[in-house]
Amino acid sequence: MSACLKQISSIISIFDEDVTIKRGGTPVIDPVTGRLTQPITPGITEVIKAAIYPATERDARLLPEGSRARASIVLFSKIKLDSNDAKLNKVGDIVVYNTEDYEVFRSEDWNNIGTFYKHIAIKVSV
Q1: 0.90 exceeded by the pTM?
Q2: Which position among 84, 92, 117, 121 has the lowest Cβ density within 10 Å, counted as fewest Cβ atoms?
Q3: Is 66 left (phi over 0), alpha (psi -120 to 50) or beta?
């Protein structure tokens, strides 16, 4: 790994904080909209280290079109989180940030800068 990439990895690690993740559960399809909803039965809750930032406009362009206007965050973690996949009937992991729930919609492997994953999560509507 180059010196520049090591520096980026170190900078991301400095901003790590404890983040609660809710994994798994049983997804349900809303009979009215036909969309996946959050699990009725919760799965496993765990705490991981992650650096969290507000999503940029560029990040938002990577999200599904109907979700781009909702509040979103970016997480960098050493743990891969599950992302939403309607084709597989799978909801994404839930990130609890500032007492609000955010569902992971996109995960990218950033191992080229030091074993990191970049996740984009969208605020869950209530």
Answers
A1: no
A2: 117
A3: alpha
